[in-house]
Amino acid sequence: MKAIETRKLTKKYKDKTAVNGIDLEVEEGELFALLGVNGAGKTTTVRMLTCLSEPTDGEGYVKGHSIKNEKSAVKRIVGISPQDTAVAGNLTVRENLEFMAKVYGFTGNRVKGRADEISEVFGLGEVENSRAKTLSGGWKRKLSIAMAIIGEPELLFLDEPTLGLDVLARRELWKSISGLKGKMTIVLTTHYMEEAEELADHIAIMINGNIEAYGTLHEIEEAAGKQGLENAFVEIAERSMGK
Description:
- This protein has 243 residues and is of the alpha/beta class.
- It has a domain at 4-86 and 155-240: Rossmann fold.
- Helices cover 37% and strands 25% of the residues.
- It has helices at residues 42-49, 71-77, 93-103, 109-121, 137-149, 167-178, 193-199, 217-224, 229-240, and strands at 4-13, 16-26, 31-35, 57-62, 65-66, 78-81, 155-159, 185-190, 202-207, 210-215.
- The chain has a 6-stranded mixed sheet with strand order 6-7-8-3-9-10, sandwiched between helices. Strands 2-1-4-5 form a 4-stranded antiparallel sheet, with helices on one face.
- The longest helix is centred in the middle third of the chain and has 13 residues, at 109-121.
- The radius of gyration is 18 Å and the shape is globular.
């Protein structure tokens, strides 16, 4: 069974097609990167796959569950760290973690225990008593991802997790994400080419709602006739836009 499979998945908004009948497959346990510039359709695709937005047409399956007809089953097995950091600013880091543990059904001592586990994974101990609104962008992103996995999801969606971070904060977050590989299936949307080069097993390039390339880094470089993901991306993007 594929972790994710889509068939002609489509999302339209009045006069705009945001996602244009895409077919995708994501293997169990891999880190899959969905690349594209702003407005390419990446976030819309994630929103459909996590049942936050209804497809206009087509179908998608998450671990065999339909995103149209089995929304509850899908939501039970996915976690999402959205582009807009989803933390409660007036709560401390520890309070955010324990609150989410309760949301996911943990009770009693297991609430504290699960918060301890996740705090250790992401190295949040030094800031756990700080209010989330006082954290730097890098710490907020770490906390957002920690909150997304506290419910032990089988699939984790990271939508632009390093957007707006400086180089050092970005690299630090890469280490945290890399540490999750193999423990769950991860879908990463980004427009940072080096991020996908560093982390991804397979890569898809999305341009104007269409999947224009899919494969390993080497396969995409071969298809584009260019070395380096950034060069390959530009070549594929310009071909698809007729430049």
